[in-house]
Amino acid sequence: MSDRDGDFGAFLSGFVIGGLVGAAVALLMAPQSGEETRAMIRDKSIELKEQVEQTAADARAQAEQFAADARTRAESIAKDARIKAEELQKRGQVVLEEQKTRIEKAIDAGKKAAQSKRAEIEGEAPGEA
């Protein structure tokens, strides 16, 4: 963005300086009376001022459009990020539930094995072991 600002500033400076130099050369080369020359200077300065104002308005409009485009892109990126985060959260929840189920089954299997072994041990007569 900085390069674009610098380019525009250089363009605007060149535009204004070129206009002033052109007007000065035209005044010096034209055989006119002082009053006609002053009128021409006044007209050219008004014309140049209007051109500068128009150029500034165009630059302002371009900057506003650029800002609006950037805002739209940022909102789109934020929306995409939210969607991806929600998808990851859902996927994580599914994996968590699957692991929870596996752990519960393993615990149940361990309890059953322990109960079976206990019953086996209790079923043995004392002194048979």
Helix count from the secondary structure assignment:
2
Net shape: rod-shaped
Characterize the biggest β-sheet: none
Number of strands: 0
Proportion in helices = over 70%
Strand content: under 5%
Summarize model confidence as the mean pLDDT: 84
Roughly how many Å apart are the termini?
87 Å
Count of discrete structural domains: 1
Q: Write down the secondary-structure element order.
A: HH
What is the rounded Rg? 42 Å
Structural class: mainly alpha
Which regions contain 5 or more consecutive residues with pLDDT less than 50? none
Characterization of this structure:
By secondary structure, the chain is mainly α. It has one domain (2-123). The protein is 91% helix and 0% strand. It contains two helices and no strands. The longest helix is centred in the middle third of the chain and has 90 residues, at 34-123. It is rod-shaped and about 135 Å long. The termini are far apart. The relative contact order is 0.05. The mean pLDDT is 84.
What would a concise description of this structure say?
The protein is mostly helical. The chain has one domain. It contains two helices and no strands.
